[in-house]
Amino acid sequence: MVTVAPLNRDAWALRGDNVGRKIGIIGSGIVGETLANGFIKHGYQVTIGTNSSGKREGLRAKTNGRATVGTFEDAAKFGEVVVLATKGSGAEAALKLAGTAHLAGKTVIDTSNPIADTPPVNGVLQYFTPQNESLMERLQKAVPDARFVKAFSCIGNAFMVDPDFNGEKPTMFICGNDEMAKAEVRTILEQFGHDVADMGTVEGARAIEPLCILWCIPGFRGAGWTHAFKLLRK
Ligand SMILES: NC(=O)c1ccc[n+]([C@@H]2O[C@H](COP(=O)([O-])OP(=O)(O)OC[C@H]3O[C@@H](n4cnc5c(N)ncnc54)[C@H](OP(=O)(O)O)[C@@H]3O)[C@@H](O)[C@H]2O)c1
Fold this sequence. Notes:
Helix content is about 30%, strand content about 15%. It is of the alpha/beta class.
């Protein structure tokens, strides 16, 4: 019998496919659920976490029993790659609940946006971060050993996995300080049908997070929610 040694994270990135890889999802909302089903569809193993025990049964049903459902900590422990999909104002607390030690050295895909609890102004969402600071910078400072990569934050959940825009791939803007982590996320995003645009280091999140404000304006103004961004290049 041939024994195959588990691949380390560098080898995964070099191999360029992630089938069978373990994903931990911190967050039980529509983004967590959508990405859980997307990762399962693309061959990954998924544990999705909620800290509300009342949501667990529903999450099992929404992932057709194919994802393991646990706490934030269970998801963080399980994931070789971890997805953060919580309300922006709860993101730091969620990372603490997940146990920051379980995130050390791991790629953490940050989908969150710093949306304030105050209502939109004429369809323009309000943020709790100032323009020269982003939520992901706060998270990277709070958990310096984790390798945060911003992704999935600038598109509606309906288009996060295998988006269908008549053959045109939407652009997913990403950023983060760790090149290997970004390479891992690029592989995932390309598998999920996105055109990836790398906006550099963590400070790039100052520009990426507000794209959510822009994306939501047509929706709030009655023009629908079925659009995505495309970066044209020459
Ligand atoms: N909805 C979209 O289409 C979309 C698109 C792009 C980006 N995003 C961003 O993705 C993130 C997730 O969005 P969502 O719509 O799926 O869900 P959400 O309602 O924004 O977040 C739900 C999750 O946040 C957790 N949570 C809420 N308050 C918390 C707190 N104070 N401390 C710790 N955890 C807390 C909940 O925990 P429990 O599980 O314990 O209840 C739950 O897991 C958001 O930051 C959003 O801006 C959303």
